[in-house]
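Below sits the subject:
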Amino acid sequence: MKPVLCAACGTVLSYYCLFPLYRSGTISVNGLLALAFIPVVFLSLLRVLSSFHESRLLRLMTFWTITFATGLAIGIAAGINISDTVRFGIPENTIQGISGTLLDDPRVVSGGRAMSTLSLKMAMGDGGTRATSHGQITVFFREENSQRLKEFGRGTEVFAEGKLRNTGAGGATFSGVTFSADALHITKTASTLERFRTGLRLGLTDRFINSSNGGAWAGLALALLLGIRDNLDTGFAALYRDAGCSYILALSGMHLAIIVSLISFLLKKPLGLRLAAIAGALIIIAYCFIVGPLPSLNRAALMYLLGVVAVLGMLKRDMLSLLCMAFLIQLVLAPASGFSLSFILSYLALAGILVIGKAINNAFLGKIPVFMLQPLSASVGAFLATAGVSAWFFNDLRPIGILAGLILAPLATVFMVLSIAWLALGSIFPALSFLLGKFLFLLYWLMEKTASLAAAVPGIKTNSFLVLSLSLIMTAAILWLDWRRRIIAGRLEPFA
């Protein structure tokens, strides 16, 4: 087993299993430490055994135990460092206003309202009482404040008047309290760099919406390129959700891979592989800064940056190890993001592609045409890896997404490439802009019709535990078939 994979397994165990038990009060701090101490006891036993009989297996087991224990420590530390406590400084039932800094770009939700996360600085209660506050809280703003908020963007300090609401549902930070704002006051603008970023996003939004004459495809282009879904048709998004392909509309590794491919195509020949990889890394960092903090996109960016380090010869070019490394780094840098659904699905999907998908591809190689086998095995691998989580959160499964994704993903790829070309060349060649706009509209229509057909296939309402059990059994069977194939191939190799 790879060392970083062993460490990732330890982190998953402590972060997603042991730490929630501690948060729920099922086990105490001492109990948590006692469980984490088990690998140390096992390590001591291994060292005693190795003193009597030194063997390669014992050395490997000792190494695996050390890396697993390190992973346990990382998971526990990441969990404890989650800042989920909101302290207002005054009784919650007296709060009439809060102030703080916007941590993300305001997003338009149902009813035209805007939603954003606020880093609290102060709370105001009855009679004008003010107190220093700490923590993060989700704030919903009125529709008339949506456009104003978007113009100021992330990093702006605001004062909102309204009242607290207890939703009774925790998110990534386990907090079920939100704030409904009736009035908004901008108290301080964001930094120069943040204002430049916000202006760039607004400029690109205006460019797509105005230059396309309000075409529906412009909203899809903004969603796929910048993660801005404010202009995306809600019916279009609902079709993708019912078709089991909503991941195509959420910025992730697929979208970043397209951008990286374009960068490589343009820079590899004039700069060479290494310089092109470094230039690509700088472009990806700038791109992630413009888009904002999205867990799935950050995972893909981390993978690319680690891949650049591998290209430079500092790491092995092993995708599974790079995925585990990215998981550990992202969890350390942003502990709370580990409980977001996009984070979990993003890592599970890619792990499924690298492990289950690879095994399916190996097992059926030569039996199914390669151009069909590779995307099909990747789609099945991602589906099996995420099936249990999807059933838990959404209470149904959409297996049709396996087949629909084989059509919609390539269409989305072409759509993204043409959107970038439209953006880059449209102002220089108006005739080309008009022609590309027609192609983009045609692709949008084709994607909508394909998703509509897939969405007509009913999902499966089932128990999440049953789905998880079946997916684990099928995964074990696929991995066993691949292992058996490799054993047989190893026996026949001397006779080849």
Remarks:
- The longest strand covers residues 177-188.
- The chain has a mean pLDDT of 83.
- The longest helix spans residues 464-492.
